[in-house]
Amino acid sequence: MTYTSWYECVRGCGRRYSIYEIVYRCEDCGGLLDVEHDLDALRDRSPGEWKALFDRRTHTHEWPYGSGVWGKKEWVCPQVAPENVVSMYEGHSNLFWAERLGAEIGLPDLWIKLCGNSHTGSFKDLGMTVLISVVKQMIADGQPIRAVAAASTGDTSAALAAYAAAAGIPAVVLLPRGKVSLEQLIQPIANGATVLSLDTDFDGCMAIVQRLAENPEIYLANSMNSLRMEGQKTVGIEIVEQFGWEPPDWIIIPSGNLGNISALGKGLLMMKALGLIERLPRLVAAQTEHANPLYRSYLTGFKTFEPVRAKKTLASAIQIGNPVSYERAVKVLRAFNGIVEQVGEAELADASARADRTGLYACPHTGVALGALFKLLARGEVKPHERVVVISTAHGLKFSRFKVDYHRGELEGIAARYANPPLELPADYDAVLAAVAKLSSPAV
Is residue 132 part of a domain? Predict the structure, then answer.
C-alpha cells in the first residue's frame, strides 16, 4: 500500500497542497494548514497490526525506525526517502511515575512525560526532525532552498540549529534579546547557526521571520509550518503505547504558541480514527498569567480572541502574546472537552521546586503545567483516582539561573517556599555533624 500525506486548510475550505510546496497559509481563505493523511490507506493494517509494528520498531537499529518519530513513519511523513531522514533517534522519552509527588498531593497515578530527555533538551526535536528531513528531500529534488529560519524563545532555535547542522543546511534564528537563558542562547551559536538577537519580544521576532520567509529560498521552521506538528504528535501516541495502549484520563501541557497542544490532540485523534484507542483523554492547556491569551479566550467560550502584550515571565519559552496556532488549539480543545488554566509566577516557581524535591528537575514551563494540575485537583476537576500525565517540555538544565535564583531567594516577588540553599560552614567536623543531625527521617 502506498501511503501519502498533504497540506489541507484547517478552516475546511478544501484547499490542498503538496507537503513539498512552500506554503504556510491557505491561498484562498488565509487559514493555517495541517498535514492530513490518507486514513483509508492506513486502514490496510488492523489496529493490532499497527501496535505490533510500532512495538517491534521500538529501539531497533534499522534506519530510521529506531527513532520514536520515524518508528511511526507511515503516520508522520511517508513520502520522505529514508536516506533523506535527519534523525538523532529522538523520542522514546521516559514516562516517569511521580510516585512521591503524587502521594504528597493525593494523586497516586501521576506521571511526567520527560520530553526534555532529548538531543537538544526539549520536545522541539520531535518536530524538527520531520521539518528538516522534508527540507533535505526538497533540496535533493532540486528546490533552491538556501536556509531554514525560525523565530524562537530558545528551544526551537536549539533544535533547528542542531538538525540543520546535521543535514548541512544553513540555519537562521531570531531571538528576543535578553529573554532566553544562557544555555538556550549558546546551543544555536555552538551549532553554527546565524543568530540574530533582536531588541523585541517573541511576537516581534515572529513578525520579522514571516516576512523573511516570503522569499522562497528561506524556509520557515516555526510551528505555523505544520510539518513540525507531525513529529510532535507522536508524544501522545507514545504515552498511550507506554501505558500498554490505554490512554490516561488527563494530559496537561504548558502552552505558548499552541502548536504543541494542537499536535498532541492530532496524534490522539488519529489513533482513535484508526481504532487503536476507543476513548480520548481530556486535555489541559496551561498558561502563565503573564502570557495568557488562550486562557482569556477560553473564559469567553472561545467566542473572542485578543492578542496580549506578553509580560516578562519565568516561563520564558511561553512568553507569547499572539500565538500562531490559536485556531488549531481551539479545534483540539473542543474535540477533547479541554480546559485552559493559568498560574502565577510564584505558583510555577514553587511547583517546579516542589517537583524537584521528589526527584525531578523541572523546567519553569513544567512548573506551569504542575501548577495548573494543583489547581484542578484542589477544585475537584481532576479526581484522586484518575491517571494524569504532565508533559515536561524541556530539561531543567536549560534553566539553571532560574533554579539558582529560586534557591538563593533572589526571584523578585517570590517567597520561595521550597528553597534549599547550601549551608556555608567552617571545615570543622563538629559543625558538619551538627548540620547532619538536623536531617529529617527519610520518607517511607
Answer: no
